[in-house]
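Input/output pair, single chain:
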Amino acid sequence: MSDNVDVSDLKSNALKLKVESDLTCRLRMHVGKRQYDAYGKLFNLSDHLMIHRWKHRGENPFKSDVCDKSISQRSTLTEHYRTDTREKPFTCEVCQKWFHNMGNLIRHRLIHTGEKPYRCDVCDKSFRQRSTLTVHQRTHTGEKPFLCDFCVKKFNNNGDLIKHRRTHTGEKPFRCEVCVKSFSQKSTLNAHWRTHTGENPFLCDVVIL
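Output:
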């Protein structure tokens, strides 16, 4: 680097570029200029488009070095690390339940308030989360935008696609801490866990006289 270069000028230019980039992003949101297209959905930023494409393809390029779980977004990986470390820094002020991230706490609070702010404009059914409403609306439209790259089977939500792909890959990411047996779905692990604890949470309500 030349001795004549002023470090303060470099910092100023870097800040200017960041401000211009942030301003461009904000302007696109205000004026509705969406330059990137995928599966018929438009995006303001190419990064958002890339993440969206990963979801359709079932790609998860960010991997936890603790449990080897793969995730589609770096920010989500940061939150996932808290599940590995059991860190729960966010607390509900009503029931004192702890959460890994603020988003889960906000959604949890709706349980206490009973609020369901997201309403289907077809059947008027209401939901606590926008994502749940989006999946529900596909039951009306028949849309199945998530495509399996092994057998071309389609799904209306990414979660079902991820579960389905494990039937092809043989992946079993949910492991029992007692006997180290692994399962492809968390619900199956929960049912297995009861064989160790002896828990029987399901009560028959039929009375035999």
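The longest helix spans residues 7-31. The first strand starts at residue 36 and ends at 38.
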